[in-house]
């Protein structure tokens, strides 16, 4: 299922023994565009401290009740390693977090979540999880590439031949917990049109210039299928979008990954 970042904000995070707080924003990895953490405002029970919750911990998402259930306890969260969210989250801090909760490193392995394309597969014992966990001792801790959705919201989109619109929101796949699309408002150039761009088409993000550079022309973006934020994103719509840009869709690569993982499990 797809959900916009704006609709995720404010959802309650519920531990196995009580509420943890509400989602304030997301940290994503600007290399793979995976959603690595929810930033959760804990409210009164933890003196308003903000904590990180990994999608690996998710048990269930109930949009009807606006609740995300996670396999964590309040005691675990209270005693978790402290991370200063006013500063960039370092890979060392991430490593401490992962070890504390017993999660494999997502940066070890060829897929979105290291040994898997989906975080749910890393939350239970299994071949993939054991394989990824075994790599922890040998991991080289590179720099983190974490950015918040709040920081990138509003960035200008720079096409191959000039600027066209700005980032309005993010469309998130709540199965892979990946940013599948940037919602771009192009009303600066012609009235009233929102479009979607895949992060796979992003060449780089310039934090100094507050710009996202994409491998597409302004004309291609201008003439692509329009996106209505109230619409349900169907596979038919996605096919039209990828066909318009002449790019292979993300699900083809995921099928290849699943085939490889199945072979490893056997």
Summarize the structure.
The protein has 266 residues and is α+β, with helices and mostly antiparallel strands. The chain has helices at residues 5-8, 74-79, 91-101, 127-134, 149-152, 218-222, 235-245, 250-265, and strands at residues 2-4, 12-15, 18-29, 35-41, 50-53, 58-62, 67-70, 146-148, 156-159, 162-173, 178-185, 194-197, 202-206, 211-214. Strands 1, 9, 10, 11, 12, 13 and 14 form a seven-stranded mixed β-sheet that branches.
CATH class of the largest domain, please?
Mainly Beta
CATH superfamily of the largest domain: PRC-barrel domain
Separation of termini? 29 Å
- Mean model confidence by pLDDT: 87
Total of DSSP H or I helical runs spanning 4+ residues: 8
Cα shape: globular
Structure classification: alpha+beta
Low-confidence stretches: 125-139
CATH-assigned fold name of the largest domain: SH3 type barrels
Task: Please name the CATH architecture of the largest domain.
Answer: Roll
Order of helix and strand elements from N to C terminus: EHEEEEEEHHHEHEEEEEEHHH
How are the SSEs ordered, and which strands pair?
Blueprint (H helix, E strand, L loop, with lengths): L1 E3 H4 L3 E4 L2 E12 L5 E7 L8 E4 L4 E5 L4 E4 L3 H6 L11 H11 L25 H8 L11 E3 H4 L3 E4 L2 E12 L4 E8 L8 E4 L4 E5 L4 E4 L3 H5 L12 H11 L4 H16 L1
Parallel strand pairs: 2-7, 9-14
Antiparallel strand pairs: 1-10, 2-3, 3-4, 3-8, 4-5, 6-7, 9-10, 10-11, 11-12, 13-14
